[in-house]
Amino acid sequence: MNNIVRFLQQNNHFLLLTHRRPDGDTLGSAAALCAGLRSLGKAAYLWRNPEITGRYLPFTEPYFAPEGYEHSTTIAVDTASASLLGKDWDGPVHLRIDHHPATAGFADMEYSDPSAAACGEVIQELLERLGVTLTKEIAELLYIAISTDTGCFRYSNTTARTHRHAAALIDAGIDAQMLNVKVFAKSRERLAMESAIAANIAYSAGGRVAAASLTLEEKTAVAVAEDDLENIAGIAQGIEGVQVALMLREEADSWRVSCRTSEPYAANAICGVLGGGGHSRAAGAEIKRRITPEAARAQVLAALWEMYPELRD
Ligand SMILES: [Mn+2]
Asked: Which of 80-84, 111-115, 283-287 shows the lowest mean pLDDT across its residues?
């Protein structure tokens, strides 16, 4: 971390990049870093990610770079690979700050701490090292980053360190309860989608495996917004007894696969069979074919069984 502290101190005119389909962690982390750099007298702005959704817009809009802002240093935050760099971003990346396991690097300088539950934890520690005062404004952004990536402190990535970070944020004066309501409130469309998903969950291996899918047609029928699709993999994961939750979501020409697991099953190993990757408890992959939901499920289950034959019925 010493290297990146020095790098941030020595450079200026930052542009902070968020990943594709930006979530609370990438946006909260980038905005908190942006505010922190500004407090050190630096020029810093967020790149206007074209895929940002309404849920996080109010928190991040004040940091968006104005038309014509000339940056000299770019930082990608919470971005595991070059293919996840924000849609339409094609410039160089000077620094990557992340919490995903190391992949093929794409930035000139890289720092990733996979033991952190959220990139927000890494940013919080980095700001402390930079001597940035934890203002309420910065603390709110870090709280959004950490609470969203931990499912409001419920996922297994949550550690004592995560709670210590959150405690420091609450000490800085944030209203955690109000933020939880803003970030986790469920829309009616989301509820309708959850009920559509619940209706087609297939259980196997004595209830240890749950596979669910959402077709484009089903998605259109319940009229969900992009925001409502966040963490749909968590729906099957929250069911009693489920240790491997598989969520398949149809896109125009492909299927997006999300996998959530509990011990001893490794989500990144299962998704690795399909050419994807991620964390041990949460990972993803893509099936780049137009096939039926049944065929997509069969393919994902085959990948699961290849890794864990004992889960085959
Ligand atoms: Mn993250």
From this structure: 80-84
Six-digit token string for 250: 């149809």
CA–centroid distance, residue 284 to ligand 1 (Å): 13
Backbone dihedral region for residue 223 (phi beyond 0: left; psi -120 to 50: alpha; all else: beta): left
CATH topology for the 189-311 domain: Diaminopimelate Epimerase; Chain A, domain 1 (3.10.310)
Rounded Cα distance, 17 and 305, in Å? 37
> Cα(221) to centroid of ligand 1, in Å?
30
Nearest CA-CA partner of 60 in 124, 4, 17, 5: 17
Of the candidate CATH numbers 3.90.1640.10, 3.30.1660.10, 3.30.360.10, 3.30.450.40, the domain formed by 2-184 belongs to: 3.90.1640.10
DSSP state of 252: S
The closest alpha carbon to 108, from 87, 122, 92, 86, belongs to 92
Ligand 1 centre to CA of 145 (Å) is: 8
Residue 178 has pLDDT above 90, yes or no: yes
**CA-closest candidate to residue 98, choices 17, 34, 163:** 17
